[in-house]
TrEMBL record:
Domain of life: Eukaryota
Stretches assigned to the CCAAT-binding factor domain: 547-700
Native organism taxonomy: Eukaryota, Metazoa, Chordata, Craniata, Vertebrata
UniProt entry tagged with the keyword Coiled coil: yes
UniProt protein name: Nucleolar complex protein 3 homolog
Coiled-coil regions, chain positions: 443-479
GO biological process, alphabetically ordered: DNA replication initiation
Chain ranges of the Nucleolar complex-associated protein 3 N-terminal domain: 207-301
Family to which this protein belongs: Belongs to the CBF/MAK21 family.
Entry-linked InterPro entries: ARM-type_fold, CCAAT-binding_factor, Noc3_N, Nucleolar_cplx-assoc_3
Length: 764
């Protein structure tokens, strides 16, 4: 039987310990350092060998002989002849010649023997005096081994160390360096721009085909081809500078679509040690390996996207310089798009909270495109989140971001709260609580109406229904808890800004949010909140739109659970009445939508708490306002007047010329209770009957007739059943369109000049 080595599974490869990875990294770094050190040593040896060879190079002998001969001739001319010397001197010279030291001296020199440096020493003699090196065997180095002990004592053990032929290695290295230099000196072929473009297109097409092949293989069989995800993800590090940017973008988008398709509809949790130790079927083991591989590759992919965004934010470039700094912005935008898509498409899958932590700070980014992408993604997530888990995570991160930046964030970050499904979930929760509970048949009813077999089936069916009801009850309870936590964080953020940052640019967004969610605030905070809202209005530091949000928030509070409180919001009525004429057909025309919401809450929902004098004053001032606003605002105002005339009795006083009671109408007075509105008439309706907009004409004629619900003066169902805010939006002229459209006028046909008859040509 063969002894085959078992190939490690993909799951085991994923479980590589951190220590092993660190050791591999250290070994790699050590090898690189040792290779660099060895290369430096070889270069140093090469330089020393070249320097030594240059210093040992002998001078040419022919030139030296010529110089020596000339020198000897000069010396012979200066020297004395031998016949002029004494015999004693000659004898001395002969004795000195027998000594060895004399032979080593230059005979033409007059310097003593002990002088080492000679200025006039000949070149040949210098060359001859250089000592010759005998070729000796290199000294053998000994390696000391462990000693041996016998009866005689300890015997040391040694071994000769093998000597490498250094000279031969140096020659081989120099030859290799010369070959490399010769190879580098060969010039690269110069390509024309057309050839370079064609080569780039070919390379890009090859990369595209490779990406498509890998993606189709993964999508066709995700279980078997999960390893190809790693190969595709490796293309995010494309190094060819000609196609690197496009290839990386394509790989990012391809991986995003692949993960959206193959990710399961549940969160994958890590296996426990007991689960790993137990034996399972092959199919289960294969599924586990697929899930582990998918989660790990998804994590690495998200890390790559995060690193791309960080490199662009920190203006950092990689050492390879494959991609320019300008191209990094395009890569970062694609990375943000991929993260936004995964945030919306996979809210149930792993690492969703990590994506939220990445996306939410980018909502405050300086780049308009990136911030808008993140806004839209979070809005979509809020709208489609039915369980509330993802919404709770986003709200937590936004609250921490606002607090961490010391309230220095863009107002749009808080305006995202307006898209939460809190109001819809609350209504659904109330309807579930109010709905009658299901009743089951009693034992007597079963005995009377059902047979034995039918009773048996009915019992099993009721048991199943009870279990389902229990599951739904636990789910709704969990949903309520999530909703309560989300609401708590939202209101804590709002109240913190109202308390600590009243002059912050976030205040309009806070007031708008309070106006929307005020009916969900706890009753305990009502008094304090109303005091804060009134102080903000009285301070005079708010814009008109912000003051309208304050009024709307206050009346939302009082129209909901605040009905039980004994609070008279007269100061809010007075402020709105006083500032109505701030609206006009210019920039403030859009603010009239908020005014219509305020009027609906102030009069329609609080009809029992409003006096007749207050209603008459608002009816008169709104009729005057309808004269100098755009047509859509006029339609909304007149629709509100219609509601006032139908809700409150005796509003037809203003349709009569005769005054009721004493006093004169004071139009400039800002107190609706004391302006004597009952002594005036709605003469504005006669002007509005001649308005250029047909819908305004219809409403004016309807109000002059007393706003009847039936008869000839009644409005059509299309106008009578729609609220004022909806009519305001329906007849808006933002898109430069007129509703209803203006009928085109056919131009008159011109008579040709040769057919026209002059006055003087006529026979009178």
């Amino acid at each position: 039987r063969k002894n085959t080595k078992r190939v490690p599974s993909f799951r085991k490869l994923l479980r590589t310990s951190k220590i092993k990875l660190d050791n591999k990294l250290k070994n790699k770094q050590y090898k690189q350092q040792s290779a660099a050190k060895k290369y430096r040593k070889e270069q140093k040896k090469l330089r020393e060998a070249v320097r030594d060879a240059i210093s040992r190079k002998p001078f040419p002998l022919e030139e030296c002989k010529k110089k020596v001969a000339e020198k000897q001739e000069e010396e012979e001319e200066d020297a004395l002849p031998l016949d002029m010397m004494d015999e004693d001197d000659l004898k001395l010279m002969e004795d000195l010649a027998q000594k060895a030291s004399f032979l080593t001296r230059d005979l033409s020199s007059s310097e003593p023997v002990h002088v080492k440096k000679r200025k006039h020493e000949s070149v040949i003699e210098k060359y001859e005096k250089v000592p010759r090196r005998m070729q000796t065997e290199p000294e053998k180095e000994l390696i000391h081994l462990l000693p041996i002990k016998d009866k005689g004592g300890i015997i040391p053990q040694t071994r000769e160390k093998p000597v490498l032929n250094v000279a031969q290695d140096e020659e081989e290295d120099t030859e290799e360096m010369e070959e490399a230099e010769d190879f580098n000196e060969e010039p690269l072929p110069v390509l024309t721009p057309e050839e370079m473009a064609a080569q780039r297109r070919q390379t890009l097409q090859e990369r595209k085909m490779h990406i498509a092949a890998l993606a189709s293989a993964i999508l066709s069989e995700p279980d078997n081809n999960i390893k190809k995800l790693k190969e595709l993800r490796a293309m995010l590090m494309e190094q060819d500078p000609n196609v690197a940017v496009i290839v990386r973008k394509l790989v990012m988008v391809s991986l995003m679509e692949i993960f959206k398709d193959i990710a399961p509809s549940y969160k994958i949790r890590p296996l426990t040690e007991a689960e790993k130790a137990t034996k399972v079927k092959k199919e289960t083991q294969k599924l586990r390996e697929f899930e582990e591989g998918l989660v790990s590759q998804y994590k690495f992919y998200l890390e790559n996207l995060e690193q791309t965004i960080k490199d662009w934010k920190q203006r950092k470039l990689k050492k390879s310089n494959v991609i320019s700094l300008k191209a990094y912005k395009g890569l970062a935008e694609i990375a943000v798009k991929c993260l936004c898509e995964l945030l919306v498409a996979l809210p149930h899958f792993n690492f969703h909270n990590n994506i939220i932590v990445l996306i939410v700070p980018l909502m405050n980014d300086a780049s308009k495109m990136i911030s808008e992408l993140c806004f839209e993604a979070v809005k979509k997530l809020f709208k489609q989140d039915k369980l509330g888990y993802a919404s709770l995570g986003v709200v937590k991160v936004i609250s921490g971001l606002v607090r961490g930046r010391n309230y220095d964030v863009r107002p749009e970050v808080l305006k995202v709260f307006l898209h939460l499904r809190i109001k819809e979930v609350e209504l659904q929760k109330d309807s579930e609580d109010i709905a009658p509970k299901k009743k089951f048949m009693t034992y007597k009813e079963k005995r009377k109406n059902l047979s034995r077999m039918q009773r048996k089936w009915k019992k099993a069916e009721e048991k199943l229904e009870r279990e389902l009801l229990e599951a739904e009850a636990s789910e709704s309870k969990e949903k309520k808890l999530k909703l309560a936590k989300t609401l708590n964080i939202v209101f804590v953020t709002y109240f913190r800004i109202l308390k600590k940052a009243q002059k912050s640019p976030l205040l309009p967004a806070v007031l708008e949010g309070l106006a929307k969610f005020a009916h969900l605030i706890n009753v305990e905070f009502f008094d304090d909140l109303l005091i804060v809202l009134h102080s903000l209005i009285a301070s005079g530091g708010l814009h008109y739109r912000e003051s309208l949000h304050c009024i709307l928030s206050a009346f939302h509070i009082l129209s909901g659970q605040g009905d039980v409180l004994n609070i008279d919001p007269m100061k809010f009525y007075t402020h709105l009445y006083k500032t109505l004429f701030s609206l006009h057909a210019g920039r403030t025309n859009d603010d009239l939508g908020i005014v219509l919401q305020c009027l609906d809450v102030m009069f329609a929902k609080r009809r029992k708490q409003v006096s007749q004098q207050r209603a008459l004053a608002f009816l008169k001032r709104l009729s005057t306002l309808a004269l100098h606003v755009l047509p859509n605002s006029s339609v909304g105002v007149l629709a509100t007047n219609r509601v006032l005339m139908q809700t409150f009795p005796k509003m037809d006083l203003l349709l009569d010329n005769e005054s009721q009671g004493s006093g004169v109408y004071l139009a400039e007075l800002d107190e609706p209770e004391h302006c004597n509105a009952q002594n005036t008439a709605l003469w504005e309706l006669h002007l509005l009957q001649r308005h250029y907009h047909p819908t305004v004409q219809k409403f004016a004629a309807h109000l002059i007739a007393g706003a009847p619900t039936e008869g000839s003066g009644a409005l059509s169902l299309d106008l009578s059943q729609r609220p004022a805010t909806e009519l305001f939006e329906a007849y808006s002229m933002r898109g430069m369109t007129f509703n209803p459209p203006v009928a085109s006028v056919t131009p008159r046909r011109k008579v040709p000049s040769h057919l026209s008859v002059s006055f003087f040509d006529q026979d009178i």
